[in-house]
Amino acid sequence: MSEQSTSPFKYLPLWVGVIGGSMLMVNRLLTPALTDSQARSDVVGTILSAILILVTLLWEQIQPKPPEAVVLEGKEDFQLAEHLPEAIAAELAWASHILLTTTVSKSVVVYYDGKVLLRRGILPEKKDFNVGTIAERVLEKQKAVYLVTLKLYPGRVEFDYLPENTQGIICQPIDKKGLLVVGTNIPRSYTKQSEQWVAGIAEKLSMTLAEITLPSA
Question: Which fold has domain 75-210?
Answer without folding.
Answer: Beta-Lactamase (3.30.450)
